[in-house]
Amino acid sequence: MVLKVCVIGAGIIGLSSAIQIQERVGQGEITLVADKFSPETTGDGSGGFWKPHMLGETPISDLRRWSETTWKHLISIAMSPLAAQAEAYMVSGYSLSSRSQYQEEWWKDLVLGYRHMTPLELQMFTDTKSGVFFTSVQINVVSYMDFLLRRFQKNGGKILRKTITCIDEVACDYDVVVNCCGVRARHLLHDFEVTPVRGHLTRVQAPWVKHFVLKLDPGEEAFVLPGVMTSVLGGADEVGNWSKEVRDEDKRTVWQRCCQLMPSLQNAKVDHHWVGLRPSRSRVRLETKHVTVQGRKVPVIHNYGHGGSGVTLHWGCAAEVADLVLQEIQVRRRKAKL
Question: CA 277 to CA 248: how far, in whole Å?
Answer without folding.
Answer: 18
